[in-house]
TrEMBL record:
Membrane-traversing stretches: 27-52
Family: Belongs to the AAA ATPase family.
GO MF entries: ATP binding; ATP hydrolysis activity; ATP-dependent peptidase activity; metal ion binding; metalloendopeptidase activity
Organism listed in the record: Flavonifractor plautii
Listed name of the protein: AAA family ATPase
């Protein structure tokens, strides 16, 4: 019992000390300094004794020790605590005492004018004053929402994508004239989901929709909603929609919604679920006439939660694909207007060379070409600048001419093999062949135009697989099988990819698509793929052997000029 009572007393003393420090900072600082002085007292005593001990006669030693003890005690336990407390309190209260009376406060001003000492107004804590933890929480839970206000971007500012803009313009019509839909029993879609590869302009489409419709635009990234504080993500979602509803009609755009709306799993964090549920409630809640249209964008439609993309929430799903030839040409013309270029720059040729590139990639291409021109102290972009920028983007490396003569000859025949088979077997136009290496490790490159048909013939897949073997086959024909280089490693990977697509599209012995059984741990049968690989390689060797004179002509021209463009390459077949 005594032990328990003692523990309670200790807790009471500690609480008393804590309350003293909180209510009276001066006394609290003095107490803390006094305790610290007790610790430093022996050290100060020893230091004084070490300095003065040798100067004191033996008869006065006891009295001197008493004096040292008294001086050490007074300095350590009285003087230092007093100075520390006074200095600290002066620092805390000094500026406040020197502040003039607030003339806006009539009570304080009146008391002062009567000559009666005005009572010091009690400083009230503001209602929004928070602890340091709360302030940190506020900093970490703020969603970076971009209130665009009156967006000036319209569909006229977007090049290409005629069909996509037509679908989006219908949404604008619904926003401007909702009565037309109501007359036939329809309603404005609750949400619109834009999906497609990265860089295709999904955010730009959403901004253009808001700008054309003339409504407020609120943009946020889905990853910014989720927070370490459970429940804060849902609060952020509700706050965003509350602001949008105040300025209705408006558009809320959520980019990268897959960061929040991915398929839910048993091990998913509770914060994700609460935030997603809050978003679903705002999109398809009780307040369906709020005047807020939700637009979301994603690169991976198949990974989204089915509850999120079901009808009634995101009623319209609009694909934003990679631009086709006409779209690329329109985008290229848009960027070309902003730059000075030489007459030999063909915009149509650039459109053919940029198959598979997004609008963002084309923008980067022109920016890199501008950088190349500035590096050469020119204000005009040349064809070589465009070509160099395109090669740099494809290979992810800078130009590097550090290949010896023997290697250069092998590289020339290697690229000549690819280019010749691309023209004769794959029927793809060869846009550029070069034996100029780069810092990414590529010693040469052959750029051929891809086929943009929606239905790709199986013979085209077969021809491209054979073309991939052209470099290795040319090395074997010219330098012998024992001297084949390692430069075909990436070519073999590309050939395997074409062979797999060739088989899965039904060109093999079986119509079974084995990749559909991947979730059942099925080991794919590679026997047929190996047979096709050997067959395609033999055909590559056969075609190059039959056209050895063309192979030699292309390789020798490459050794002379290092780079062949499309018209130069075609001239070798005349």
């Amino acid at each position: 019992m005594c032990k328990k009572s003692s523990t309670k007393d200790k807790l009471t003393l500690g609480q008393m000390l804590k309350n003293t420090v909180r209510n009276d900072p001066k006394a609290g600082i003095w107490i803390v300094s006094f305790i610290a002085g007790l610790v430093t007292f022996p050290l100060m005593f020893l230091c004084l004794w070490w300095v003065t001990g040798n100067m004191v006669p033996q008869s006065e030693l006891v009295g001197h020790l008493i004096k040292l003890a008294m001086v050490s005690g007074v300095v350590s336990c009285l003087v230092i605590p007093s100075v520390a407390s006074c200095a600290r309190v002066e620092k805390m209260s000094g500026p406040a005492d020197s502040e003039p009376a607030d003339p806006a406060n009539p009570q304080v001003a009146e008391s002062s004018s009567e000559g009666t000492p005005a009572p010091k107004p009690q400083t009230e804590k503001p209602a929004d004053k928070k602890s340091r933890l709360a302030e940190l929480r506020d900093q970490m839970t703020t969603v970076n929402t971009e209130a665009m206000g009156e967006v000036t971007t319209t569909f006229d500012d977007i090049a290409g994508y005629a069909e996509t803009k037509k679908n989006m313009e219908f949404i604008v019509r619904c926003l401007r004239h909702p009565e037309q839909l109501k007359a036939v029993g329809g309603k404005i879609p609750n949400g619109i989901l834009l999906y497609g590869p990265p860089g295709t302009g999904k955010t730009l489409m959403a901004r253009a929709l808001a700008g054309t419709a003339g409504v407020k635009f609120y943009a946020a990234n889905a990853s910014e909603f989720v927070n370490i504080w459970v429940g804060q993500g849902a609060t952020n979602v509700r706050a965003l929609y509350a602001e949008a509803k105040k300025n209705a009609p408006s558009i809320v755009f959520i980019d990268e919604i897959d960061a929040l709306g991915g398929a839910r799993s048993p091990g998913q964090h509770q914060e994700y679920r609460q935030t997603l549920n809050a978003l679903l409630s705002e999109i398809d809640g009780m307040d369906k006439d709020s005047g807020v249209l939700t637009i979301a964008a994603t690169n991976v439609l198949e990974e989204l939660d089915q509850a999120l993309i079901r009808p009634g929430r995101f009623d319209r799903k609009i694909a934003i694909p990679l631009p086709n030839y006409d779209d690329r040409l329109a985008i290229i013309r848009l960027y070309a207007k902003k730059r000075s270029m030489t007459e030999d720059v063909s915009l149509e040729a650039i459109a053919r060379q940029t198959v598979g590139m997004s609008g963002s990639s084309i923008n980067t291409l022109f920016n890199e070409a501008s950088i190349q021109a500035v590096m050469e102290n020119r204000s005009v972009i040349t064809r070589e600048d465009i070509d160099m920028a395109l090669t740099q983007m494809i290979t992810n490396g800078e130009i590097s001419k550090t290949v010896d003569k023997d290697e250069l000859e092998m590289v020339a025949y290697h690229e000549a093999g690819h280019a010749l088979l691309a023209r004769l077997v794959a029927n793809d136009p060869v846009q550029k062949v070069t034996i100029i290496g780069n810092t990414a490790g590529a010693l040469g490159i052959t750029i051929h135009g891809g086929n943009e048909q929606n239905l790709l013939p199986l013979e085209t897949l077969r021809g491209r697989a054979i073309m991939c073997y052209g470099g290795r086959a040319a090395e074997e024909i010219v330098f012998g099988k024992e001297n084949i280089s390692t430069g075909a490693s990436q070519d073999l990977k590309d050939a395997s990819r074409y062979i797999r697509a060739y088989i899965e599209c039904g060109a093999g012995k079986s119509l079974l698509n084995e990749s559909s059984f991947a979730g059942q741990n099925m080991i794919p049968d590679t026997k047929e793929a190996k047979e096709l690989s050997a067959q395609f390689y033999d055909e590559a060797v056969k075609v190059l052997t039959e056209n050895r004179h063309l192979l030699d002509r292309i390789a020798k021209t490459l050794l002379e000029k290092e780079t062949l463009m499309e018209e130069d390459f075609e001239a070798l077949f005349e």
